[in-house]
């Protein structure tokens, strides 16, 4: 499978109405979805191999799984800032947003810059991309210095009151991932959550309490001390 047309046919064969129904129950936009599970997409991506031009072709089809597959086939070093901006304009489902950020965007040299920029956007999925990128970087960029994440904490505090579902969950996700990197960041993330809890906002209090539940849990503390 070396062309987009054949790959789309493969995706259609791998999908099912049952999977689409399951996706919808998790709040995924299935308007253009074939109903292909993520593990099957990852397996297909390994079979195809990295191919940046093909990734762009697949993205342009607007098909749900084709866009996620595109994030697995694209080459970070070839991805331009213009392409990143074009792709986030197409985000219309939280899973596509998160997969692209975790599979591709967090591996680009401008990932930290775009995380900050996008977190200030108004559009729900563009803003989510900012915080999803923070979470992905916290989880994947093992050698990054603490200062890279400390600068995100005031942003998380400022945006913690956004009550849109896909934004508040990404703000919470970013805070939790940063707080699970090491003991220092855990201490600072917990302090941030305590500050957020004082904000007169039901959404902010949820973000804070949910993060504190995980970050102060015995399992997380044990892992950080090991």
Provide mean pLDDT, rounded. Answer: 97
Contiguous low-pLDDT stretches (5 residues minimum) are none
Number of helices: 15
Taken from the alpha-carbon principal axes, the silhouette is globular
The helix-and-strand class reads: mainly alpha
Beta-strand share of residues:
under 5%
Using DSSP, what is the number of strands?
0
Order of helices and strands: HHHHHHHHHHHHHHH
Distance between the termini: 45 Å
Descriptive report:
- With 226 residues, this protein is mostly helical.
- It folds into two domains: 1-74, no CATH class; 95-226, Leucine-rich Repeat Variant (Alpha Horseshoe).
- 70% of the residues lie in helices and 0% in strands.
- Helix 7 (94-103) runs parallel beside helix 9 (124-140) and helix 12 runs antiparallel to helix 13 (183-197).
- The longest helix has 17 residues, at 124-140.
- It starts with a helix and ends with a helix.
- The mean pLDDT is 97.
């Amino acid at each position: 499978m070396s062309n987009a047309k054949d790959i789309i046919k493969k995706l259609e064969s791998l999908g099912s109405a049952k999977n689409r129904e399951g996706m919808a129950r998790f709040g995924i936009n299935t308007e253009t979805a074939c109903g292909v599970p993520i593990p099957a997409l990852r397996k297909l991506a390994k079979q195809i191999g990295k191919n940046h031009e093909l990734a762009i072709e697949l993205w342009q089809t607007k098909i749900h799984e084709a866009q996620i597959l595109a994030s697995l086939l694209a080459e970070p070093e070839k991805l331009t800032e213009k392409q990143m901006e074009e792709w986030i304009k197409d985000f219309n489902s939280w899973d596509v947003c998160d997969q692209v950020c975790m599979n591709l965007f967090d591996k680009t040299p401008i990932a930290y810059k775009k995380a900050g920029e996008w977190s200030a956007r108004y559009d729900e999925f563009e803003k989510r991309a900012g915080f999803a990128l923070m979470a992905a970087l916290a989880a994947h960029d093992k050698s990054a210095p603490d200062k890279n994440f400390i600068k995100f904490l005031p942003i998380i505090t400022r945006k913690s009151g956004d009550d849109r579902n896909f934004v508040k969950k990404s703000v919470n996700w970013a805070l939790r991932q940063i707080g699970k990197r090491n003991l220092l960041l855990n201490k600072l993330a917990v302090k941030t959550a305590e500050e957020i809890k004082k904000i007169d906002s039901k959404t902010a209090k949820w973000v804070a309490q949910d993060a504190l539940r995980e970050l102060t849990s015995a399992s997380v503390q044990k892992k950080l001390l090991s």
